């Protein structure tokens, strides 16, 4: 349980949309997370992680200046009590697998793939329907040459299924709803080189 929770609140001031940091009241979070790591064969590593997080707004303190219906009714009763806390998907999980095997005297080849999934996420404390990111999953893969000398060269493909998503959605002061676009919003390929010394 958290008291005095701080949150960004969007409101209208002099017919202009403004964002204020407010004391949003009391919230709570209950859940469980699990992490597993398996090594079923030489060179093969499998990991999995999952989380269930029931994060809710318990007692929201709607700013007195907020328009009726924004976060409270005409009687001052909060409309968002019991609703999901912003930026808090209820379910998340990740699976990852890699297989590393020698291809030369001091050189290994590694095949790797991972998948991340999260459930629907609300990004606004006022629970507006157009600031919800539906559930989505991102699948990545890579192949790498690993040297005993401390260098590696890795070819990657990110977002193999070309799944479009946003890590944040909010209202802008001019253009209505703004959707932030991450680097892997579209499928892309790349090469990563690194040296440890």
Descriptive account of the structure:
This protein has 197 residues and is mainly β. The chain is built from no helices and twelve strands. It has strands at 2-13, 16-41, 44-60, 91-104, 107-118, 121-122, 132-133, 136-147, 151-158, 169-172, 176-179, 188-195. Strands 1-2-3-4-5-8-9-12 form an eight-stranded antiparallel sheet, with no helix packed on it. Strands 6-7 form a two-stranded antiparallel ribbon. A two-stranded antiparallel sheet has the order 10-11. It is elongated and about 75 Å long.
Give a topology summary:
Elements (H helix, E strand, L loop, with lengths): L1 E12 L2 E26 L2 E17 L30 E14 L2 E12 L2 E2 L9 E2 L2 E12 L3 E8 L10 E4 L3 E4 L8 E8 L2
Antiparallel strand pairs: 1-2, 2-3, 3-4, 4-5, 5-8, 6-7, 8-9, 9-12, 10-11
Label this structure with key terms.
197 residues, mainly beta, eight-stranded antiparallel β-sheet, two-stranded antiparallel ribbon, 12 strands, elongated
Summarize the structure in short.
By secondary structure, the protein is mainly beta.
**Parts with pLDDT < 50 across at least 5 consecutive residues:** none
SSE run: EEEEEEEEEEEE
- Strand order in the largest sheet: 1-2-3-4-5-8-9-12
Number of helices: 0
The structure class reads mainly beta
Instruction: Summarize the amount of helix as a percent range.
Output: under 10%
């Amino acid at each position: 349980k958290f008291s005095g929770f701080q949150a960004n609140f969007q409101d209208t001031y002099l017919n202009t949309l403004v964002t204020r940091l407010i004391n949003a009241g009391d919230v709570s979070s209950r859940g469980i997370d699990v992490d597993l790591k398996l090594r079923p064969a030489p060179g093969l590593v499998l990991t999995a992680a999952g989380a269930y997080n029931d994060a809710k707004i318990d007692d929201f303190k709607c700013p007195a200046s907020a328009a009726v219906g924004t976060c409270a009714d005409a009687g001052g009763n909060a409309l968002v009590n019991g609703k999901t806390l912003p930026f808090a998907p209820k379910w998340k999980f990740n699976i990852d697998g890699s297989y590393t095997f020698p291809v030369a005297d001091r050189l290994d080849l590694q095949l790797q793939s991972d998948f991340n999934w999260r459930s629907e996420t609300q990004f606004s404390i006022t629970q507006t329907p157009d600031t919800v990111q539906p559930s989505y999953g991102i699948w990545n893969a890579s192949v790498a040459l690993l040297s005993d000398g401390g260098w590696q060269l890795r070819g990657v493909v990110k977002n193999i299924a070309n799944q479009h998503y946003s890590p944040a959605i909010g209202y802008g002061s001019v253009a209505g709803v703004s959707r932030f676009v991450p680097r892997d919003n579209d499928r892309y390929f790349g090469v990563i080189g690194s040296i440890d010394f």
